[in-house]
Amino acid sequence: MSPAIRRSRLPTRGTSPSRPWLALPLAALVLVVSIGVAVTIGPADLTLSEVGRSVATHLGVGGALGLEPLSALRDGMVWQLRMPRILTAAAVGAGLAVCGAVMQSLTRNPLADPYLLGLSSGASLGAVLVLLAGVPLLLPVAAFVGAVGALALALSLAGALGTITPTRTVLAGLAISQLCAAAVSFVIFWSAKGDAFREVLSWLMGSVASATWTSVAVAGGAVLVLGTLLALTGSVLDAFTFGDTAAAALGVPVNRARWILLIGVALLTGALVSQSGSIGFVGLILPHAVRLFTGARHRLLLPLSALAGGSFLVWADTLARTVFEPRELPVGIVTAAIGAPVFAFLLWRGNHR
Amino acid sequence: MPTTQRGLTAERVSWGIDGQLILDDVGVLAPAGAVTGLLGPNGSGKSTLLRVLAGVQQAGRQAASGPGPTTTFDGADLRALPRRERARVLALVEQDAGTDLPLTVLDAVLLGRIPHRSLLAGDSDADRAAAHTALAAAGAQELADREVGTLSGGERQRVHMARALAQRPRLILLDEPTNHLDIAAQLHAMRVLRDLAADGVTVVAALHDLNLAASTCDHLVLLDGGRVVAAGPVGEVLVPAVLEPVYGVRVDVLTHPRTGRPVLSFDRG
After folding, report:
1. Domain A89-351 in CATH: superfamily?
2. Degrees (nearest 5) of the Cα angle A239, A244, A248?
3. CB of B192 within 8 Å of any CB in chain A?
């Protein structure tokens, strides 16, 4: 009864959509349009063409294109208020999505993301301590140290509980995350004068409301450099699909690869959190959503997650600042409102396998 | 033992954890173009030996003195090969490797091409062709578009074999490739191994089922408590005097009426 072994028939094409690479320029276009449209949304009824004129003027090509500059007031609104905020949101969303995808693959844990495993809270703690000490230049470094520390604590706690399972890792991460969050709140309440509540909220729930061009430079630079490096590691992450032994058998130096990639993730998370606070669930849900389209191979998954994550956070932040206008929500409330149900679904699906 | 022989030669392989020896001075000879079965009761060290041979677990230097372990394949020292180069010579099929990720069978098999291309490159047409050839050789061609998570045990095993074959290995190590499979799937898996051996590949498979080993293997290595207790052609290893002390059961060896190979029957001692 054993099925005959067929040796002859040759390749029919695989499953993936016929030209999956078209998805990248498309997603990039969506991101650019999202950024442009998001800038127009809000008080003062800006138009897309005004946004274009302001951007062209500041890039120094306005004159060459024969465009008239905006009035100082409207130009300031585009270029000083909304653009840095929206670009920061795009960079943070892109970076968190890449971090989530890399962590999920490395730890083979569908629930892994920088927020759930405590990296984000650890980074927040590092950032707050440095701000308190009055050395804001060290902000990204301190956030990185916080992220690495939290990750190391979470993984060793998960290991101390026994075999490292996805659920144990998340529980350990939550414990570390809560601890760091409490420490952040404590430090701020102890030291802050004035609006401590708002400051605590913006670190713990995440916010890009006070983003400046410096934030764009830090978050954007980190995404361009580290995000690109991480996105190039697709083959290595692919090799981890069936676990450490399988990866080793495919010629991957497992331990070295894991540590280099996790430190890259912690560096990127640190840079992002130092500018936005800890925004939850972006790293969790975006990679899962993108996988529905790309499958589990990373070469397309990583860059596409980045672009989709950028658009996602731009719109989440737009919601956060407009839904209850003139009141603003921390953007983390919006991402949690979308992300927590997805997290619950993943948990449920994990138990029904 | 001649070291220039084609195939796998491992000598003095020891491995231990927490001061306990799992493998104690093991030697294995697996000729090219043959299926070598690795037998032994649970916990005898079969899986560990395969992992050490595959180089995914370092061979510990448990022997205090004397020459260290050697693993040579076709005359080349496997342990001295760079990882990626080794992955082009040798493939390992683990037991029960799974994933929670949504992955098509073709994509899973394409993972086997990773050692053959630059880490920055994507799948080339040659990679896809190699993957399809591997799928066909493992009898899994029609599964190419399915999701790995939806496959039955037998189908999944074929996919894992195809992934290993996509590496185009000259040496393939398999850890209980017939575990949890129904009898048709077991015979299918062993048939694939026989075909590989016929193509000149060196095949080493850890097996639980002695009768399956009797019907398909050319050579056998019997492990017990981390030591080799017998090795050689099937007819020399599968005899009551060797098997009874290792498994603690009574063994009768019959002869298959059509193939002339041994058929074993067991009683509690």
Report:
1. ABC transporter involved in vitamin B12 uptake, BtuC (1.10.3470.10)
2. 65
3. yes
